[in-house]
Amino acid sequence: MSDQYCNICNGFQYQTQIMTNDEVRTSHIVDTDQLYKDIRSGELPAVSFVKPSGWVDSHPASSKWDLFEGFTKKIVDEVRSNPELWESTAIFVTTDEGGGYHDSGYVQRLDFFGDGTRIPLIVVSRWTEPGHISHN
Prior knowledge:
The protein has helices at residues 16-19, 22-28, 32-41, 65-80, 83-87, and strands at 90-94, 121-125. By secondary structure, it is mainly alpha-helical. It has one domain.
């Protein structure tokens, strides 16, 4: 199976307290296969960060939005299928700015880089209000 690893996309890769300690690195940085096993067994850690591979991360140069949606949907569906886990889990879905492809608004140019695009954040949980959109 092919995969595309993005070395600058793994924020933990640059944390010396993680990457210079073999025990911490190998016990806390795992493949998504382990995430799915943890979801099925109901044994998720209190917090999990999930970074999709370059093939499904929605970056325009290497992926497509629908592939990212499928990756995200699989995680949400797995969590929802475990009632005990679904009762106590919130899933925060966000993306890289992707060059502004996900921002439909005007981006004011304050300097060479601009002031940045707005980043979508979707919260999936049994506790969220369906259809609620916050602009804060």
